[in-house]
Amino acid sequence: QVQLVESGGGSVQTGGSLRLSCVMSGHTFSPHAMAWFRQAPGQERQFIKAKTWTGYNTFETSIANGRFTISIDNAKNTLYLQMNNLKPDDTAVYFCAATPQQIRASVMTADAYDYWGQGTQVTVSS
Description:
Elements: E1 3-7, E2 10-13, E3 18-25, E4 33-39, E5 46-52, E6 58-60, E7 68-73, E8 78-83, E9 92-98, E10 115-116, E11 120-125
Parallel strand pairs: 2-11
Antiparallel strand pairs: 1-3, 3-8, 4-5, 4-9, 5-6, 7-8, 9-10, 9-11
């Protein structure tokens, strides 16, 4: 059974930094990609960044450009999100996700992902 477990969330002040980690276990395949999403109260889940398992390709939107960096260590089955210069609008539950080996949708959409972590809370105070 595939499991994704996030860690590293917490409460910081504006301008602070956090590093989220997501460890994948129980898999017998290499996912095509892994990603970070976030969901603020009352809002839809929002794609942040994705990276192919090989590490060759990164997919991202304008969200947190220049402030968030995604990386992957497939030897450790771990996905990271380094978040710098955090702002109150970054407050949300952050989820990691993994695709199957073969994808069926854009990795920038939730539809591509079969496996999700439980989420980790990030709170940024002004």
